[in-house]
């Protein structure tokens, strides 16, 4: 269900972006048609069908290409983990004995990342599992591994 939700969010974001581009083109006079003729051209022309297919495919692969999960062999040291996330402007959202959840402090980042900025850190025996966006997880992993040595 999470995969479908992330794909749908990406599809909506790309659809809004496309609409903004068309509105800007219409306002500047660079768009020859508008409204219903534009929608018809988008759905019936070869270019429109290809553009629509690319948007759908991109949205469908977004969760696979943008999220990751890594395991680090280390003790679950909450202070060290909090410090590693603080460097990248992430703050602790919730904490339990075996799990921590972080979110970015920036509202703009949350909006741009479709509110999928949440990163979870879980204890798994002698390992720490980190799951979230590929933008942040490898950075935190590197920082935590550097702290181990």
Short description:
With 149 residues, this protein is an alpha+beta fold. The chain has helices at residues 2-28, 36-44, 46-66, 78-86, 107-112, 137-148, and strands spanning 67-73, 90-95, 99-104, 119-124, 127-133. It has 6 helices and 5 strands.
How is the topology of this model organized?
Layout: H1 2-28, H2 36-44, H3 46-66, E1 67-73, H4 78-86, E2 90-95, E3 99-104, H5 107-112, E4 119-124, E5 127-133, H6 137-148
Antiparallel strand pairs: 1-5, 2-3, 3-4, 4-5
Helix pairs in contact: 1-3, 2-3, 4-6
Task: Tell me what you see in this structure.
Strands 1-5-4-3-2 form a five-stranded antiparallel β-sheet. Helix content is 56%, strand content 21%. The protein has two domains: 2-65, no CATH class; 67-148, 2-Layer Sandwich (TATA-Binding Protein), CATH 3.30.310. Helix 2 packs across helix 3. The mean pLDDT is 86. The protein starts with a helix and ends with a helix. It has helices spanning 2-28, 36-44, 46-66, 78-86, 107-112, 137-148; strands at residues 67-73, 90-95, 99-104, 119-124, 127-133. With 149 residues, it is of the alpha+beta class. The protein has six helices and five strands; from the N terminus they run H-H-H-E-H-E-E-H-E-E-H.
Q: What are the key terms here?
A:
five-stranded antiparallel β-sheet; 149 residues; TATA-Binding Protein
